[in-house]
């Protein structure tokens, strides 16, 4: 039983690593527009967001139950498959971060898991009807709903405030943005930290350490919350730039409308147990807010690239997850170690590549584009 | 395959309604604030309009947090 315990430990560490990438990938969802409009200083924004993520993680565990008992067959899943799935998710998160693309961490996670379980246990292990119901339909519906809500709200906000003193309006909405962005962070914590909790719980169930219908233990909730909070505090500045500056020119009333729409969509769906993507909701809101102000510039090229990334996120992560699963399946513990080392090496290459054209707290608002001076490392990441 | 359309519909309707309501009420609050800052005869009325609207928004936020925390209900 010793090697099972070791493997379970590796899986839990990998899950927390994924949670960390999820945090810095998704800081932008809550804080990008507040940073872009100057409602919050960049450093303050990520600190507030990180703390609220941790608080949010403790508030609700409804989605954590949905995932561990939903899209894959719990009885067929082994810790090795979960490990392979997480590797797929982490690598895809890093590649999209390098490109500054706000893709969905949730879809990366689901994709990785689906690929790994498919290779490891056959297609019977994947509940495709649940994938459609719990993942794909919310993925299509939620950005549209958030976008329409933000569009209508933005339009009305500008229409109503057209004759007021513009300095008062800007100031008022900036203060409102602090509140609405904080709520998005809180909702992000309740929604995304739960995904890691779900994965760790699934691991513990498959290792026989927890009962089949068990919820996440307190230490799982705590460590998942802290991992996502730390990741958020680190700040994914590349993605913050794309969402705050790249998609549209955002003013404070638009930022407030976008964040309010994101919060409501995330909170109502979390309440009903849908595991939707915070990233897609927030992007939909920002596009809606961009369209709601007449003459506001929406950069459709950036939006198009982002939607393309959404479409390939699940299959790409599934491919990497499936590849990793086949190595782990045939290589046993050695295979696991090899995959872990290869994943670490690729992660190091991606981080090194990001240093060539770094985006930081002090230059995040300077441009609206995230570029690489050398595109080669991206190819390494996708090829893995 | 079972898709819970009514739950999805509820999410859509509630999200649209709440977002628009909160932003409109908040905008009225900002308008009140703007009148108060203009400093003429409508100053006091503007301030109370702002206070009332922001209070309403705060109440919605509090209700949202209440919904999220299972321990509250």
From TrEMBL, chain A:
UniProt GO BP: phosphate ion transmembrane transport
Membrane topology: Multi-pass membrane protein
Location of the region described as Disordered in the Swiss-Prot/TrEMBL record: 362-384
Keyword Transcription carried by entry: no
Major site of localization recorded for this protein: membrane
Any Pfam family the entry gives: PHO4
GO cellular component: membrane
Keywords annotated in UniProt: Membrane, Phosphate transport, Transmembrane, Transmembrane helix, Transport
A GO MF term: phosphate transmembrane transporter activity
Regions of compositional bias (Polar residues) in chain numbering: 371-384
Domain of life of the source: Bacteria
Family indicated by similarity: Belongs to the inorganic phosphate transporter (PiT) (TC 2.A.20) family.
Protein name (record): Phosphate transporter
Organism, scientific name: Streptomyces yokosukanensis
Organismal lineage: Bacteria, Bacillati, Actinomycetota, Actinomycetes, Kitasatosporales
From TrEMBL, chain B:
Key words of the record: Membrane, Transmembrane, Transmembrane helix
Transmembrane parts of this sequence: 12-31, 51-69
Protein name (Swiss-Prot/TrEMBL): Uncharacterized protein
Organism: Streptomyces yokosukanensis
């Amino acid at each position: 039983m010793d090697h099972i315990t070791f493997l379970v430990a590796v899986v839990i560490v990998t899950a927390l690593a994924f949670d960390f990438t999820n945090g810095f990938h998704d800081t932008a969802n809550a804080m990008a527009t507040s940073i872009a409009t100057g409602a919050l200083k960049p450093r303050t924004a990520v600190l507030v967001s990180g703390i609220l993520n941790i608080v949010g993680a403790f508030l609700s565990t409804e989605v954590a139950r949905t995932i561990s008992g939903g899209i894959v067959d719990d009885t067929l899943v082994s810790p090795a498959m979960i490990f392979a799935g997480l590797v797929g998710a982490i690598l895809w998160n890093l590649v999209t971060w390098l490109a500054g693309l706000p893709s969905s961490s949730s879809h990366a996670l689901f994709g990785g898991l689906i690929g790994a379980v498919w290779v490891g246990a056959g297609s019977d292990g994947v509940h495709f009807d649940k994938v459609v119901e719990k993942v794909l339909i919310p993925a299509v519906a939620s950005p549209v709903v958030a976008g329409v809500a933000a569009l209508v709200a933005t339009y009305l906000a500008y229409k109503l405030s057209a004759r007021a003193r513009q300095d008062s309006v800007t100031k008022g909405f900036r203060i409102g943005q602090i509140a609405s962005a904080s709520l998005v962070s809180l909702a992000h914590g309740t929604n995304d930290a739960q995904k890691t909790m779900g994965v760790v719980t699934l691991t513990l169930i498959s290792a026989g350490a927890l009962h089949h219908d068990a919820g996440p233990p307190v230490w799982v909730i705590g460590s998942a919350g802290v991992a996502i909070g730390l990741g958020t505090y680190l700040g994914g500045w590349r993605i913050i730039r794309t969402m705050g500056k790249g998609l549209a020119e955002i003013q404070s009333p638009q930022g407030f409308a976008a964040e309010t729409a994101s919060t409501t969509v995330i909170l109502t769906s979390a309440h009903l147990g849908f595991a939707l993507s915070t990233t897609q909701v927030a992007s939909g809101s920002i596009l809606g807010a961009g369209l709601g102000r007449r003459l506001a510039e929406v950069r459709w090229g950036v939006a198009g690239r982002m939607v393309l990334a959404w479409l390939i996120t699940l299959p790409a992560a599934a491919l990497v997850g499936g590849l990793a699963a086949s190595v782990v399946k045939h290589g046993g513990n050695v295979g696991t170690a090899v995959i872990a080392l290869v994943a670490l090496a690729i992660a190091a290459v991606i981080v090194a590549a990001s240093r060539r054209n770094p985006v930081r707290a002090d230059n995040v608002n300077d441009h609206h584009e995230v570029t690489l001076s050398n595109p080669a490392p991206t190819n390494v990441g996708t090829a893995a | 395959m079972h898709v819970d359309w009514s739950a999805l519909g509820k999410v859509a309707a509630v999200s649209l309604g709440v977002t628009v309501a909160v932003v409109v009420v908040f905008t009225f609050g900002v308008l009140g604030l703007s009148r108060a800052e203009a400093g003429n005869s409508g100053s006091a009325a503007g301030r109370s309009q702002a206070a009332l609207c922001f209070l309403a928004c705060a109440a919605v936020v509090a209700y949202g947090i209440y919904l999220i925390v299972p321990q509250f209900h």
